[in-house]
Amino acid sequence: MFLGTLTVHVRLDIRRNTMSADTLGGVHCAAGVDAREGSGRVTVREILHVVLRRWYTTVAALLLAALLTALFLQGSGVYSTRAVVEFRWPGAARIEADSGFENDSVISFADMVATRVNDGHEPFRYSQDEAPLYGAGIRDAAVVDLSFTGNQWVTDHPVAAITVSVVGRSEEQVRARQVALTDEVLKTADALQEEVSVSRPEYVVHALQPLSARIEHITPSRSSQITAFAAMLAAGVMGGVGAALMWERATLARMARRAGRAGRVAEGAIA
Prior knowledge:
By secondary structure, the chain is α+β, with helices and mostly antiparallel strands. The chain has 6 helices and 7 strands; from the N terminus they run H-H-H-E-H-E-E-E-E-H-E-E-H. The chain has helices at about 1-30, 45-55, 55-75, 105-115, 170-195, 220-270, and strands spanning about 80-90, 140-145, 150, 155, 160-170, 205-210, 215-220. The strands form 2 sheets. Strands 1, 2, 5, 6 and 7 form a 5-stranded antiparallel β-sheet that branches. A hairpin with a 4-residue loop joins strand 3 and strand 4. Helix 2 crosses helix 3. The radius of gyration is 36 Å and the shape is rod-shaped.
């Protein structure tokens, strides 16, 4: 009886060792874990073995990276414009020394116009006046502000000019918003002077700088596109490799649990 029991236990141990070496041990090694020492060491060969066996995770990650890259190309580039409306004394030319372009009274009037267009609120300033909106990462916005020097914390208004900055995804959208806001500035300037009964010959002159109305298409440079492609490719590869290793480790844990349950059932049956 003793010999029979010993023989059954020896056979059971042999079966367990065989399962560990052929199945669990192989998964451990593929996942970068030393099955005999449990040290967690990993080699490039073992990682490549896992990646080749779980090739579909890398393919899925690369497809996702390609989709994101395509969306980036489709949505890359914005349209931007910065129109300038100038204010001067009645009948004064822009090049005259005393045109009123730098006069405090005319500047104050231009400030009133900008405030009325903005419904009584000061516009939010992102940086210096010359800095375009897309430089702050904005892709869809419109700002009407009095021309200033300084930054978003400290400003000074040296000239009587209102800037209409618009940025958007399409040229038609930017042009429509630019025309609408520019017309609103010009109409508001006339309305404010009518409210105080200023005669037409005494109106403060306001005019749009012709060259400022152009719309620019801002697109990433070739070097930026190549860098983005390389980054997305690297992200896809790393994501695929990481997913393969995590999948392999999850499979290892699941097989280990199944083997443990099978061993306990066998021991219970023998007992």
